[in-house]
Amino acid sequence: MNMLDTLDRQIKRQILGETVVEIRYTDTDPDFLSLYDDENGYYIEPAFCAIKKITENMYKDLINQFTDNQVYNTDPEIIDSNMTFDEFNNKYYNDLK
Description:
By secondary structure, this protein is an alpha+beta fold. Helices cover 33% and strands 29% of the residues. The mean pLDDT is 87.
C-alpha cells in the first residue's frame, strides 16, 4: 500500500468517525473491530458482523482501554481485554438489543 492509499484510508475513517481496534483475548488470536463516534450515537462493528449501536458509557469504556502501543499513528488502537473471545463479545456485542 502506498502513502496516498494510507492517507485516503485515514481521511475516510476520520470523516466516518471510525477507530479500528485490535482486540487481544486470553484464549485465541487477536481480532479487529471498528468503533464509530457519529453524530447519531456510538456504534461497534466486529469483523464479519453487523454494526450495532452502543451506549456512550460502553464506548468510553472501550476507548479508555486503549494501550497506546501503536508503532505508527495509522496502526489500529490496541485493547488487551484480559477476557476470552466469548466474554468480550458477550459484554460488548452479543447482549446488545
